[in-house]
Amino acid sequence: MLVKKLVATARDHWVRRNMPMHVRARDTRQTFTEILGEESLKGHMLPTGPILELMDVLAGSIAAHVSRSSIATISFDRVDLIKPVFHGDLVRIEGEVISLGSSSIAIQCCGFRHDLLTGTYQHTHSGIVTMVSIDRFGKSRKGLPQLFDEDRADYCIQMRETAKQRLDLAARWRKEQADVDQLPFISADQIRMVDGKNEFVPVKDTEMELRKWILPKNLNINNTMFGGDLLTWMDKAAVYCARNFTKNERMVTIAMNRVLFKLPILASDVVTLRTRVTNVRRYRLEVEVEVYITPVGERVSKKSHSGYFTVLNVDDGGHLKEIEKGLVVDESSQEDLKTLLKAQKRWEFEEEDKNLLRLKPLELAL
């Protein structure tokens, strides 16, 4: 055991000593291609989960190549659906590093589906994934190179500025959410609801819970759960919660925002996913998903992940369908009002969020 530790320490030291000072964004580009979904469901819209899995695997491969170390997913800052993907489609995910911190790596991922009729690739998804370089103890490992390309100096400067703006935006977002918790009282007139709803239910009546056990296929080389697998679980839970609310099977995730990975999920953990509807618009709604882990033999659970999924309501023909149900605004339930006000502030924040996080799509690599 001692020899293994000494070898691992020597290897870490060798990697740090031989880490380049700079890396070019173009040299980090990788592409994964896969045929997704079930052949028996060909032509039906594919859930977002398989796309998220592919993005997570690609981002992990890029981050591991740049850091020359083990890596872990720490957030999916935002993922947007541009066009639907269908079962049986050939999907291509392009990824490239857009910023490097001392130990963090932000990667832009763009999804494309191959159109059989035209032979072209159509842009379907955009997202930003943040990874962190870790050592053998699971701690962040600093010393990453800087992102620089003398042939694209303006681009590198722009990406560094964008990275700073993203950090500032995330800090403001957290502060606005935290400030709501400090309010002594929230009045009903602070909540702006959408007109045209025929029925109203309390937030607590939309809550659902799933409990799952990890299988060996869900574990990565760090013996923790694959981030992509968990994202698939979260997406399925969010969509089912949305369907239960609208009583409509035809719902699809169109955006995923601020999915944070706070704690690793180990093989011995029981995973609980708790969902609730927090905001209802005309055609879409927001579902909050919180993930809790409970080690086997223990009673205390810890929150490990959280995120917000925007789910669109459509009819059998794929056209927008109005959501007739809304959420109750009742001053006697201050916890529900805090949930509604936080969701309202996230909605107001969304346009600025999209403008900063929705970058120009990556061009297809040759």
Automatic annotation (TrEMBL):
- UniProt organism field: Pythium oligandrum
One GO cellular component term noted in the UniProt record for this chain: cytosol
Give any GO molecular function from the UniProt entry: long-chain fatty acyl-CoA hydrolase activity
- Provide the protein name: HotDog ACOT-type domain-containing protein
Checking InterPro entries in the record gives: Cytosol_ACT, HOTDOG_ACOT, HotDog_dom_sf, Thioestr_dom
Q: Name one Pfam family in it.
A: 4HBT
Source lineage: Eukaryota, Sar, Stramenopiles, Oomycota, Peronosporomycetes
Q: Which domain of life is it from?
A: Eukaryota
Q: Which Gene3D superfamilies match?
A: Hotdog Thioesterase
